[in-house]
Sequence to fold (297 residues):
Amino acid sequence: MYHNPVLLEACLEGLALKESGTYVDVTFGGGGHTKAILDAIGRDGKVIAFDQDEDAIENSWEDERLIFIHQNFTYLQRFLRFHKIEKVDGILADLGVSSHQLDTPTRGFSTRFDGPLDMRMSSSEGTSAKDVINSYTKEQLSDILYQYGELTNARKIASRIVERRDENPIETTLELANLLRPLVPAKIQHKVLAQIFQALRIEVNQELEALKSLLEQSAEVLNHNGRLCVISYHSLEDRLVKRFIQYGCFENEPEKDEFGRSYKPLKKVGNMTLPKDIEIQNNKRARSAKLRIAEKI
Fold:
């Protein structure tokens, strides 16, 4: 297993594990969280693990209590029904890119290596970052960079990309990074390039729409008092999680019935949890992690 699980103890505590409970790890990765859950529950318990990444399949192992599903977590309800599971006692989501994906140059997630502009969570299907960079209009690129990267100079970045690709297609991570470095002051280059790559990755994988779908489905499939634990890594994700827990929706105000009561499927459990300094020292990926926990009402 290549996964060093983030905020592990807080997640296990947040799930309020039961000996014979049924749990879902929607982001299996290297299997670290799943293994810890299985170690903590009894032989009548069960974990359903989702991951669309082909590399994650190799990290699965034989355990009669484990069901591994090679799919995106947007298919949560569909596969629970397929396995005749109506409700679950807990759902864990560790969002973002795994350390393995970041450290594998051919996946194209990081500016640290030269590799193809891919960024797909599932490398066998969907639109790649190369497709986005070389086919989207300047306006589309600008919108993505502004909305998903929160970049104030999104238009300038988009213009530079379009100018260069008119000469030759942009095909690799370093090619893109080196093209855009002159637009950014040296002292913040790493941060801004990370925001650019984040924006492209979110678009390629439709991550925010997938997260919305997961949150809505979680509210449907959790048992009464079942727990939802979500680890997010940037403000766009965290905002959606926080708002859904608080209001049961993502935009505007929640609908109210004739008595002025709004429908809230979840309630907040505790406060947001951040990693401790020792965990960040041992696992740099944890430095931006935020864990929110909710309980089905």
In short: The chain has a mean pLDDT of 94.
